Amino acid sequence: MGEEILSVLKEDAGKRLDKFISQNLKHISRTKVKELITQGNVLVNGMVKKTSYIVKDNDNVCIRNVDNKLAILEPYPMDINILCEDDDIIVVNKPQGLVVHPPNINYQKTLVNVLVYLGKNLSSINPLRPGVVHRLDKETSGVMVLAKNNYAHLNLVSQFRRRMVKKEYRAIVWGVIEQDSLQIDLPIKRDLNNRFKMRVSFLKSKEAKTFLQVIERFKEATYIKLMPITGRMHQIRVHLKFLGFPIIGDEKYGRKDGYKNLFLHSYYLSFSHPRTEKILEFTSSLPKRFKEFIDKQKH
């Protein structure tokens, strides 16, 4: 048994205590959350509260006697390129084809399992997703950061939620984009016909914004950089599909083009160090598939 510590952010203020915990600790059932609160195992700013308590901005919520499921994570032997590491964070260059965390207890070939194999400490805010403060799709390569302790985890999550983290992706899409830059403002939601996909929708959807800038145009494709302002699931891929410029190799949202690898890469990441507050910047050089495609277009 262990404990979880959550910090209430501005956007979560006004929620019932049980709902707030359930939304942030998805591995614990709503029934179990209510049971823990009733038994006095949930403290808000050091005091026992009822399930109906309305959380406030900056409340500190401590949940005791929580089953720690980190033990279910099996080591997965694999080399990984670590760009930076200290006592609080670990920045990696995620290879394409590697899932970030286990989608279920039976799948263990993930980045988190690789870090377990390497003996890295990871935060336990969400024991099923230790260290994970943001994600990259399995098909997407590039730079990402993970938290090594709960203090760093809460700080980084807050930075992502407050849009303080700067991200830049590189992609190659089918079609020639005539505008030099675009501000894409198209809300998205989960596809009702396929829960594993997202789609642009103006009904009961969430805000999604992406800034696009053309780097180079080819005969039938465009090399671009993208700065997502919001961080919705599959946001970049959905936006580009909707505009008629699907990413090359995108089997989920693109066309059947014969390319087996997705041409989407997390190129740049910048954030404030959770303890020193120093601005850190990391770049992941273009992968081989990008360089080969670009070189081929020039010959």
Brief summary:
The protein has 3 domains: 2-66, Structural Genomics Hypothetical 15.5 Kd Protein In mrcA-pckA Intergenic Region, Chain A (Roll), CATH 3.10.290.10; 70-161, Pseudouridine synthase (2-Layer Sandwich), CATH 3.30.2350.10; 167-267 and 291-297, Pseudouridine synthase (2-Layer Sandwich). 18% of the residues lie in helices and 29% in strands.
CA-atom Rg in angstroms: 21 Å
End-to-end Cα distance, whole Å, is: 62 Å
By DSSP (H or I, 4+ residues per run), the number of helices equals 6
Major β-sheet profile: 9 strands, mixed
Explain what the structure shows.
With 299 residues, the protein is of the alpha+beta class. The chain has 3 domains: 2-66, Structural Genomics Hypothetical 15.5 Kd Protein In mrcA-pckA Intergenic Region, Chain A; 70-161, Pseudouridine synthase; 167-267 and 291-297, Pseudouridine synthase (2-Layer Sandwich), CATH 3.30.2350.10. The chain has 6 helices and 15 strands. The strands form 3 sheets. Strands 5, 6, 7, 8, 9, 12, 13, 14 and 15 form a 9-stranded mixed β-sheet that branches. The radius of gyration is 21 Å and the shape is globular. The N and C termini lie far apart (62 Å). The mean pLDDT is 92.
